[in-house]
Amino acid sequence: MDPKQKFYRHFQDSVAELQEQIDELEAVSAVAGERQEAIDHVLAGISKLQHEVSDAAEFTPSYDRKQYSDNIKSLSDKLNETVARVTPRSRFQFKRSSIGAHVDMGAPENDPRLHPGSLSRNTQSSSGEKHQEARESDDTVGDLPSVAAIRDYNAELSQPSTQFVRKPSFSMARNIGIANQSHLHIILPSSAARATASGSLTDLKWCIVDMSVPTAQGKPFPGLALRNISNSLIVAGHVNGPVHITGVADSIIVVTARQVRIHECKNVDIYLHCTSHPIIEDCTGMRFAQLPKCYSIEGESPKENQWDQVDDFKWLKAGQSPNWTTLSDAEALDEALWTNVVPGQPGVSVEETLKKVGIPRQ
Questions:
Q1: Same domain for 348 and 255
Q2: If you write DSSP's letter for every residue of 115-182 in order, what string do you get?
Q3: 238 and which of 31, 128, 215, 317 could share a cystine (Cβ 3.0–4.6 Å)?
C-alpha cells in the first residue's frame, strides 16, 4: 500500500480509538487514581499520534498535515472539555502545549496500539502527588457508577417478548452498545438521545436496528463501529466523525457520516451521505446509493455528498474496481419502503420485514 494511504488509515483508526477512550472517561471510577490513569493514557495516545504526524511529514502533503493537525487539536479540546466535567477545574486543565509532559512516551505501556481499548496502564504511579490529587478528586467529584451497576439493555433485549418491534429507552445509558442479538427489530426512541456519546453494534444476525431518531434529535455519534453483522438492516443515523464497518455480510446499512471505512465486507448495500471518499478494503459485492430522503436532516448539502466516490485500497489498477458499484434508481429501495415497511408493521416479523427490503440479497 502507498505510504500516504497506509498512514491515513492508521491515523483515522487511532483517532477513532482515542475518541472512544475520551467518551468512556466519565464511566471510569475516580477511586485509587483510576480516572487519572485513564486521562494520562489518552494524553499519551494524543502525544504519540502528534509525533507520528511529524515523522510522516516527508511523504504527506501540506494539506493532509493540516487536516491531521486540526484533528489532533479537536481531540485535545474534547479531552479538556471532558476532564473539566469530571474533575475539579483548579487541578485538571490540560493545554495542547502540555501534551507529553505527563507521561513517558518511550514506555511501551503508554502505546495505545499495544493495549487497544484499554483505559488503564495497570501500573502504579511513581508520584505521591498524583495519588494525592486523585484522593482530592474523589472527595470533590465522587465515584461514578461502575459498568456493572449500569442497566444491562442487552440482557433485557435477549428476554422473550411478544412484541415484534422492541424500543429500549437507553435513557439511563451514556453509550449505545448493542451486541450478541439475533432476530430482533430494534428502534431506538427519542429517550436515547442522551446516550450518543459513542455507539457500537456488534455480533448481530437477522436484526433490524434503527438509531436515526436519537442521533437526529439529540447529538450525532462522534464515532460509530459496526462489527460482525450478517443478514441485517442497520439504520445507523448521523455520525459526526468516522464510521468503521468491519465483517458485515448480506446486509443493508444507512448512515450519514464524515468518514466511512469498510473492511472485510461482502454483499452489502450502503445508503450513504458522506463528506469524504468512502474507503473499502478486502471487500466484495459492495453497492452504494444516496441516503433516502426520509433520513436527511436540515443543513446537509447534496453537493457535499461523495457517496459514489469510493476508494478501493486493494484495487491499484487503472479503471473501476470490480468490488463495488452504485445502485441505479430502479435497484435502490423505494422511499415508501423506508417510511412504511422499515419502521415495522403490525403482526409482521423481523424476517418478513427483512425479506421485503431484499435481505438476503437474491
A1: yes
A2: STT-S------S-HHHHHHHHHHHHHH-PPPPGGGS--HHHHHHS--S-SEE----TT-SSEEEEEEE
A3: 215
Q: Is the whole model's pTM more than 0.85, yes or no?
A: no
**Residue numbers of the domain that contains 340:** 162-357
Nearest to 209 by CA among 234, 189, 228, 192: 234
Q: Is residue 173 part of a domain?
A: yes
**Percentage helix, strand, coil, to 5, in the chain?**
40, 20, 40
* Phi and psi, residue 149, nearest 5°: -85, -15
User: SS3 for 280?
Assistant: strand
Are 61 and 166 found together in one domain?
no
pLDDT in tens, 87-111: 654 444 444 444 444 444 344 444 4
Query: For residues 2 and 150, is the Cβ–Cβ distance under 8 A?
Result: no
* Among candidate residues 25, 60, 85, the one where a domain is terminated: 85
Assess if residue 123 is contained within a domain. Answer: no
Overall average pLDDT of the 314-322 stretch: 83
Closest CA to 39 of 128, 114, 133: 133
**Structural domains counted in the chain:** 2
Which grid cell sits at 338?
A: 423506508
Cell readout for 84 is 473539566
Rounded distance, CA 353 to CA 333, Å? Answer: 13
User: How far apart are the C-alpha atoms of 261 and 279, rounded to whole Å?
Assistant: 5
